[in-house]
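Figure 6 in text form: structure in, sequence out.
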């Protein structure tokens, strides 16, 4: 299986854009606490562009597997629960829209949707559990002091 060249350019966009976002947030005082918003916007934008590439290829199996890998990496990187929920819903709606209008698919639509939904739910539950655990640790730490 060969990795589509498009995803190489997505990786380059991370490498080029994040130092620019950081410099922009450090130099403009109004944006000093907004780097997470730049990251979230960038992630949503490149996911949408990757989805357009996926629909352009009519959901070929190797393109779908690469998009799934991209989705897995993205949900691991997101550390904010609200942003993760928005991202999961965003990708789920994109997939539903794209799969409803795709023709001559080589796989089951239900299998793909279930795979993405299960991974999204597991990632949301995991992040929520970590957040809850950290809250309990902070409460216990506050009581000990």
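Output sequence:
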């Amino acid at each position: 299986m060969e990795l589509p060249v498009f995803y190489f350019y997505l990786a380059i966009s991370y490498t080029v854009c994040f130092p620019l976002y950081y410099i922009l947030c450090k130099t403009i005082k109004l944006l000093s606490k907004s780097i997470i918003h730049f990251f979230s916007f960038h992630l949503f934008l490149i996911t949408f562009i990757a989805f357009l590439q996926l629909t352009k290829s009519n959901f070929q199996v190797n393109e779908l597997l690469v998009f799934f890998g991209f989705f897995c990496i993205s949900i691991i990187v997101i550390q904010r629960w609200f942003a993760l929920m928005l991202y999961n819903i965003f990708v789920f709606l994109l997939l539903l829209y794209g799969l409803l209008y795709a023709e001559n698919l080589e796989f089951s639509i239900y299998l793909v949707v279930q795979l993405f939904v299960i991974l999204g739910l597991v990632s949301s539950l995991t992040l929520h559990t970590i957040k809850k655990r950290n809250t309990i640790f902070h409460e216990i730490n506050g009581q000990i002091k």
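Caption detail: The chain has five helices and no strands.
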